[in-house]
Amino acid sequence: MFSKLRKAIGRLRGACRQDAGMVTSEYAMGIIAAVAFAVVLYKVVSSGQVQAELGAIVKRALSARM
Predict the structure, then answer these.
(1) What is the DSSP secondary-structure string of 6-64?
(2) Which InterPro entries does the annotation name (predicted)?
């Protein structure tokens, strides 16, 4: 009985030890991609046309009557 239990526990430990996560290089590539996306988003939002549109939206929201 104990031998079957030991075998089951051994298989469970083996299954739990499998590496299912990302390695360091994958984390680095993910961070680089996130930073690149943030830079592009910042450039778009800080452009003159987008700032004017956002300013108009804020003005309309603040001047709305309730």
Answers:
(1) HHHHHHHHHHHT---S--HHHHHHHHHHHHHHHHHHHHHHTSHHHHHHHHHHHHHHHT-
(2) DUF4244 (IPR025338)
Tell which residue, 43, 40, 60, 62, has the closest CA to residue 51. 43
Report pTM: 0.49
In order of 32, 33, 48, 54, 66, the CA distances from 36 in angstroms are 6, 5, 21, 23, 41
* pLDDT tens track for 12-64: 776 666 656 667 888 889 999 999 999 999 998 888 888 899 899 999 999 87
**Cα–Cα distance between 41 and 33 in angstroms, integer?**
12
As given in the structure block, the two tokens for residue 39 are 């830079």
